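hey m, so remember when u said the tokens were messed up on ur end? i reran from scratch. heres the input so u can diff it against urs
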Amino acid sequence: MKTHSEAPFSLDDAITQMAEQDPDFAEGIDWQQTGHFAEAVHAFRRALDRHEDSPLLWTFYAWALAETGDVHAAIAACRKAIALDPEWGIAWNDLGEYLMESGRVEESLFPIRKALRCRHFDRQHLAYMNLARYHLHRGELKRARQAAEEAARLAPGFRPARELAAWIQERQESWGIDD
């Protein structure tokens, strides 16, 4: 019998905690936020030398790698994060995104759906946006719009979701498509 409940997962809290613990991770975040992705890759790699069992670090390393154009290395880094914590939803979501970016659209559905079921994931709106992209790739406008609308519902301030849903709806109306 469980006597205490686990606190809800917060990616922001995990990022803050790691940034306080590791100056290289904090530096990587700074580089990444200013668009210096190659520098971020190096900073995250130094942090990984000390914390190679951190799914958070592997995920940020993957993100920086993807931003430098090395999507295949980003995929491998996401898989490393997932191997360390199969409930690490952001890595599953990012894996789906990078698979789409590499042209492996059909392979992306499983990781995106897996992300939505993970306990360590508080960015479901991002997974729904990737799900919308997946359905757009397949020409499934109705499903794509539903996923974008769900992303907008989950994160009302997330403008890309509202804009994508509106764009799809405009296309459906102008083309007379209600698949």
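this time it looks ok to me. Residues 123-179 form one domain. if urs says something different then somethings off w ur setup not the seq
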